[in-house]
Each structure stands twice: as C-alpha cells, then as structure tokens.
Amino acid sequence: MATKNLTHDDFAGHVAGDGIVFVDFWAAWCGPCRAFAPVFEQASEQHPDIVFAKVDTEAQPQLAAEFRITSIPTLMVFRDGIMVYAQPGALRAPQLDQLIQGARDLDMDDVRRQLAERDAQPTV
Questions:
Q1: How far apart are CA 45 and CA 9, in angstroms?
Q2: Which of 23, 60, 112, 124, CA to CA, is 20 to 30 A from 4?
Q3: Where in the numbering of this chain does the Thioredoxin domain appear (predicted)?
C-alpha cells in the first residue's frame, strides 16, 4: 500500500475513524525527512492494514501549525481516532517496527479510561 498525501481538508477524515494511522510530517528540503521516507514507504508495503500518510509541511502550513510541528520529521500515530504517539525525529526500520507493534498492542479501552480520568481532573 502506498502512502497517502493528506491536506488540511482531508486530514480529520483519515485519522478520526477506526484503525491505525501513521502520519509523517515532512518537507522536501529536510535531509532527515528524505532519509526516513523509504523506511516509511517500506513499512506501508509491509503493513497494508495500517494507513501510512504524509503531510508536506510546506504545502500544508496551517495543518502543521495546528499540530504545533516545530521539528521535522515528526511522526504521529492515531488509533481509533485518538492520537497515541507524537514525536519528532527520523526512525530506523527496527524502531518503526517496534512502534507499529506497540500501536497494535494498545489496549484502547484502557487508553480511553485514562483519557477520561485525565479529563475529569480539575484544572489549576
């Protein structure tokens, strides 16, 4: 499965549903982004049940700003509409494989419970 290019208009529709979505925020001028691209593309081929998407921060500055992208590449992982990972930096294939397995292994009932508990805490 090839990676999808996301825009501000279709981003929410891709990450809001059930399943796992990996999103790579990148730019063409970024050396680490170019180094990570083949690793990301290979993972998309090996895991057709996961959506692998890319956001060009130069073409989508509003989307990058909404997610407060200050360093690229930044990788985000959404599972069942919930962002479960967001970290800048290029990953090597074994690291990405670990992250993929971690996303698969998440107990989403527990994640939702933790989010509900956090949201119920009074703000200071």
A1: 25
A2: 112
A3: 1-105
